[in-house]
Specification:
- The chain is an alpha/beta fold and about 425 residues long.
- It has two domains: about 220 residues, Rossmann fold (3-Layer(aba) Sandwich), CATH 3.40.50.2000; about 170 residues, 3-Layer(aba) Sandwich (Rossmann fold).
- It has 17 helices and 14 strands.
- The strands form two sheets. It has a seven-stranded parallel sheet, sandwiched between helices. A seven-stranded mixed sheet has the order 10-11-9-8-12-13-14, sandwiched between helices.
- Helix 9 links the parallel strand 6 and strand 7.
- Helix 5 packs across helix 6 and helix 10 packs across helix 15.
Length: about 425
Amino acid sequence: MEQKKSLRILELAPQFPFPSDDGGKISIANTFLQFASQGNETTFFTFYQKEIPKSVIDEFFSNSKLDLFKHSTKNSFSRIAKAILSNKSLYIEKHINEEIKKEIRNILEKETFDIIHSDHSCMAPLALYAKSICGAPVGIRLHNIEYIIWQRYADALPKYHPKKYFVQSQAELLRKQEQYLYEKADVCFSITAVDKERSLALSPNANVIVASAGVDLNSWKSEELQRDPNQIVIATTFNWVHNIDALSWFIDSVLPLIKNVCKDAYLSIIGKNIPKEFYERANLKKEEESSKKSFKEKEISNGLHLLGYVPTVLPYLNKASVYIAPLFVGSGIRIKILEAMAMELPVVATPVSAEGIEASEQDGLFVCSTAEDFAEKVLFLLNNPKTARELGKKARELIKQKYTWERNIGIMIKEYKRLLNYDY
């Protein structure tokens, strides 16, 4: 075997991952950071629309190369119309065009790479294009099995909903495209064992390895503070409709059941740009995002504590007694659940939210399919604070054992070196 410690990696990502304020960005950011911290040279290619502050670039890319390409990936009307007329996957097609390919050629003319790494299947056609030029092996990080998200969305829509046929047809087009891409890649890294099974069912000849998501345990440390026995918490993003639908379900179907038994229970909602509908549910006027009110000044109304954007979620996770994750559409793994568990919070989640996390109720993860069961588990934890704290501590121990970025990105690096016949 050739002795070589470091890799030269071209990482292709669909979005700039800093600040890392949602699960997708967190996963991409930590992949990039671990590539570097484990001794590899990375050139990071991604799209942007708004100018990125120089201070952010200097903070994260002082020892790595960054190639920014101005390009929007929004689902515009023209893109949707083109997808319908061309019978192609909107998700895939919006991430590649001739100008983007030209930029990749320019990068490859200046640099030599050992590995082409694609974050998400949407960047895989570009990665395979790069391979056709330079010959480097391609790895796809399957943050999700994307066609399943589209399929679950189609299944969730009413039979005669105007979007249903389009979403269903796009799910099938994407399924066929991912089937092809997985097999063409030299390796695919699924984020869960469940997703590995799905990948191989879709593309039996693919080389699929599980490399899960993780948490930086040094950044996510619980403090021994007095927990609020009535506080439930969720940290989410509101730029994805399925997160809004999930939270609406909890507020409308679960929270009333909880408050019938525990009248002082309330839900703290953390996330930028909370939609107006949640202020209406709380009987409050929507505040500006720039509101300087402190945690204590934020009014609790109708069982809702609308915090909005916060610089760090740590103080709020330290104070709460239960974390919830009520998602019904998705794939991959919910990083925010892992972070909550690292903060010693027991979690109550739907099956989709908990999918891929190898944990049980004994580890502090409760999985519920109905509103009644969800409310029952939340009430159990609120009414038994000592047990909730014990389960929270077990949750962190599980994260230590299975879900750290260093461990799981290390699996990817090891496989890349194996592909290149390097001594690792």
